[in-house]
Amino acid sequence: MSTSTFVDEKPTQNLEAFKGVKKVPHEEYYTSGHRTCQGCESAEIMKLMAKAAGPRTIVLGSTGCMYVANTSYYSTPWGVPWMHTQLGSSGSSALGAAAAFRVQMRKGVMKDEPINVIAFCGDGGGADMGLGAISATMCHPDYNLLILMYDNESYANTDIQISGTSPYGVNTSFSTPGKVKRIMNHRWKKNMAPLMMVGHPTVKYVGTISTSYPLQAMNSVRKALSIGGPTFIHCLNPCPKGWDFDPILSFELGELAVNTGIWPLYEIECGKLKLYGKTKDIANGRFKRLPVRDYLLKQGRFAHFIDEDIEYFQSKIDEMWNKWLVPGIIPLQKEIEADTPPSL
Amino acid sequence: MATLTLPVEERKKTQEQEALITGAEAIAIACKLANVDVVTAYPIRPYDTVMQYISQLVADGEMDCEYIVAEGEHSQFEIVKHASICGARVFCGSSGVGWMYAMEALTVSPALRVPMVCMVGNRALDDPGAFGVEHNDALAVRDLGWLLTWVDSAQEALDTALIAYRVAEDRRIFVPLAISCDGAFLTHSQALVKIPAAEQVKKFLPRYDRGDLLLHPDNVISVAPQANEDWVMEIRRQNYKVTEVACDVIREVYADFERTFGRKYGNPFFEEYMTEDAEVVLLGMGTLSTPVKVAVRKLREEGKKVGFVRLRWFRPFAGPEIAKCLERFKAVGVIDRDFSFGSPDLSGVVATEVRSAMYSSSSTRPPVICFIGGLGGREVTVPDVETMTDVVFQAAKGKAQPLTQWIGLRG
Question: Of A29, A104, A139, which to mutate for an interface test with B (greatest number of B Cβ within 10 Å)?
């Protein structure tokens, strides 16, 4: 038994970054056997996540489309052990599995080796129902685990309803525009990755990824699994069914989300923020953000927007980049005008 | 004399000890003896004292486990559920609405075949707030595939916790099991308890082996995929099969417990007290056995032939055995420390089950009167028991009695 007074760390696997697409191994651990939609980016991140983690991994999947559309009895796409977990339980499931492995290895009844424990959840399971459990799990530095939240901005398994990460004004089956009210969802998307980082200062890795940048996505997963302690990744996944667009546009919409500045890509490693991809160029002024109109109008879920709505949406993104203390990420604002010495 | 010179830790390994402890502490010691791997805690009275003891055992290096304080009961039960599926022996527990907060996790665990062992410190459900005992919390899972047992002393709590792991982790069973301890009356009451030697417990309780259901990279399985109408009935049937063999497994384990530790419980499913020549009996679960036994002795002195049957196992409900036992008497009074609003005859849960068991398994059906009492931790007093006994004797004489009566109710 460890007598450490501080954090009782256990070694992780050392998963070095893939140096390029040609260096990525051929083996798949999420393969045929699922029945997700054409152009499904949520299934894409399942595949990338499993590939990045490799065979000495277990995956715990909370209820959502990546449960129901993925795993039908007698037909599973998972080449690593996978288990269904309840909608709000991604945090507790990972904690339970990591604790079980740790204690059995300590007692000598299980081979001592680092096993990747990954729990995934959708935005409904992660940003809504499971937030408390994920938050609690992020506070346990002793356990090595990754919570990956795939975000298709709706409850995509139950006929598309708004979640805590749905965009402002979006048309879903719980927020359909009507004769009197055009906008039924007044909520702004929950800022999950910074919430996880700022709220849980001992967490060593939090990242945002997009399936339109698969190499970075896989390397983010590999870093999260290698750094130790609980980690969190938030992935944006365009959804042809829920967002109402032609599946051929899945990849392009992922890029547009980044290029319009609505979906910043970054890693926060031991408290240090590192922007990457086009997000870095936006922040450095090397790339001018594309108008959000280009992103919104490609999706049927915003078809009811009038110019006024698009302008409001754009103003909120401009605010993210022009007023936030850490542009695009931390929504605190400096009170510059009031920053005068106190007069005695 | 020589053994007395052994250091305390050595004596604990090889010799039975005796200590003055509460019911909650007895279960904590059982967890230590069972070498439990993962424990999750969340505060709610009165069960939570068990977690105070376990946390101390961990801090003192007497117990080696992962001890996790969760952020709510739902997570508390989900954590141990997953730990169990990854091969760990687990313990957790709750009380009252805390148990209800965990309901989703409690619901899925039997079908996932998770042999978690839990302590329920029975407590009244909110609202209004009350710390005292009521059995509706644990009883809420009675139809879901859990095994449920009620104990009435600290000794029985400790012994039953060891038995519970053997029963739950038997591959023929593999479902969760809850040990109910009446809040305050048992959780917080001290008694002298014989603590078995660690080495003996090791013999009695082999390591939990999840076999081919283990979630581990060496065993690539997919657990609980969507089944829908294609297979759900067949999967439910597997849980039904557990209940078919549960009574036999429990009998086997009690027999082995007796062989190993020398302590006898007789019939595992219920305890009979002064029933041999009894004309009528009272039946109940948990610590109301104390006032009832006192009253039975007093009434016997007055020449009234009354006995008492204390139900230990509610799930499985040993229907035919219970019916066979009760048909010997002219009338039965069931004391329900619970309610089942709107049930047949507006009775409590236990009385309804007893009547149902008698209907199918007994040729002579004595009247079964339900007494609802002791709710919210109110004491069931000796005069209460005398009143109930009088009613049951009237019923035995063929005088019709209301089928449900509230006892100890203020006007």
Answer: A104
Question: Is A65 an 8 Å CB contact of chain B?
Answer: no
In which residue ranges of chain B is pLDDT below 70?
1-5
pLDDT at site B4? 59
Please tell me if residue B107 touches chain A, with a CB cutoff of 8 Å: no
Q: Are B108 and A131 in contact (CB under 8 A)?
A: no
Which residues of chain B make contact with A91, given a CB cutoff of 8 A? 75
Query: Which of B65, B71, B222 is facing A133, going by the closest CB pair?
Result: B71
The predicted pLDDT at position B353 comes to: 98
Is the ipTM higher than 0.90? The answer is yes
Of the partner residues A82, A99, A135, the one whose CB lies closest to the CB of residue B66: A99
pTM of the model: 0.96
* Whether A132 and B228 lie within 8 Å, measured CB to CB: no
Q: Using DSSP bridges, classify how beta strands B270-273 and B306-311 pair: parallel, antiparallel or unpaired.
A: antiparallel
- Structural domains of chain B, with CATH: 2-261 (3.40.50.970), 270-406 (3.40.50.920)
Cα atoms in the Cβ-side hemisphere of radius 13 Å centred on A31: 6
| Alpha-carbon span A264 to A326, nearest angstrom | 12
Instruction: Extract the tokens encoding A314.
Output: 């754009």
Residue in A with minimal Cα distance to B212: A81
Closest by Cα among A256, A249, A245, A257 to A301: A245
- Shortest alpha-carbon distance between residue B106 and chain A (Å): 11
Phi, psi of B381 (to 5 degrees): -90, 170
Give the pair of three-digit tokens for residue A51. 């590939």
Across the interface, which of B70, B85, B230 has its CB nearest the CB of A92?
B70
The tens-digit pLDDT sequence of chain A (344 residues) is: 444 567 788 999 999 999 999 999 999 999 999 999 999 999 999 999 999 999 999 999 999 999 999 998 888 999 999 999 999 999 999 999 999 999 999 999 999 999 999 999 999 999 999 999 999 999 999 999 999 999 999 999 999 999 999 999 999 999 999 999 999 999 999 999 999 999 999 999 999 999 999 999 999 999 999 999 999 999 999 999 999 999 999 999 999 999 999 999 999 999 999 999 999 999 999 999 999 999 999 999 999 999 999 999 999 999 999 999 999 999 998 776 555 666 65
- How far is it, in rounded angstroms, from Cα A271 to Cα A253? 30
Task: Measure CB to CB from residue B215 to each of A83, A86, A88 and give the nearest one.
Answer: A83
Phi, psi at A119, each rounded to 5° = -115, 130
What gap in Å lies between CA A283 and CA A288, rounded to an integer? 9
Number of residues assigned to chain A: 344
Q: What pLDDT shows up at residue A1?
A: 41
> For residues B289 and B131, is the Cβ–Cβ distance under 8 A?
no
Cα distance from B219 to chain A (closest Cα, Å)? 7
Q: Any idea which residue has 């009574």 for tokens?
A: B247
Residues whose CB is less than 8 angstroms from the CB of residue B297 and which lie 6 or more positions away in sequence, other chains included: B274
Residue B313's H or E segment, with its range, is strand B313-315
Which parts of B169-266 fold into alpha helices (H)?
Answer: 198-204, 228-261
Domains of chain A are 22-322 (3.40.50.970)
CA distances to A51, A55, A59, A68, A148 from A79, in Å: 10, 8, 10, 17, 18
Chain B contact for A165 (CB, 8 A cutoff): no
A88: which chain B residues are within 8 Å (Cβ-Cβ)? 74, 104
One-letter amino acid for residue B176 of the chain: P
CB contact under 8 A, B84 and A100: yes
Say if A115 is an interface residue toward chain B (CB within 8 Å).
yes
Cα gap B40→B91, rounded to integer Å: 7
Helices A131-138 and A90-106, axial angle in degrees (round to 10): 30
